[in-house]
Amino acid sequence: MKISLLLFTLLFSIKAFAQTLPNLDGIKLEKAPDYKLAEPFALQTANYLLSTPFKKEDKDVMKSLKFMGKWMNGTPDYSFSVADMEDKIGRDNDLLGLYMISKAKYILENKANVKDSKLVKLNAVTLLLNYCSKKENLVRMTKQLKKLAEAKEKGELEKAL
Hints:
By secondary structure, the chain is mainly α. It is about 65% helix and about 0% strand. The chain has 9 helices and no strands. Helix 3 packs across helix 4, helix 3 packs across helix 6 and helix 6 packs across helix 7. It is globular. About 25% of the residues are buried.
């Protein structure tokens, strides 16, 4: 009984931590070193966004998107662009934003792969597809994104990109 209670508590705390939003108001992003110091918060925020339904009326979601946008635009260590993906996922600003969040998450978790743009793109799209495929996340899939989801199911996502 004690072991099952311990396992339940551990699993619940891991789940709760994954969806915790850091205090974004206390994070300053003014100078280059600030962005490096904010990387753990950017990763935590990306994890929060990719584990929470996409509701524009949710102030935490909007605050998180604003923080991530500011961090991605200001960090001198990484470059974020959607130019190569508009034709692949559509011109929907919400999807493009979620793609950028997925890209940031992958890069921050896999810093050794940051220079491999194909690998970054493949994994960012995979994260995006995993998020968008869950109906509870309230994201409408574009025709282009549906094609990528089909390619992923067939094991041909890399070729489709």
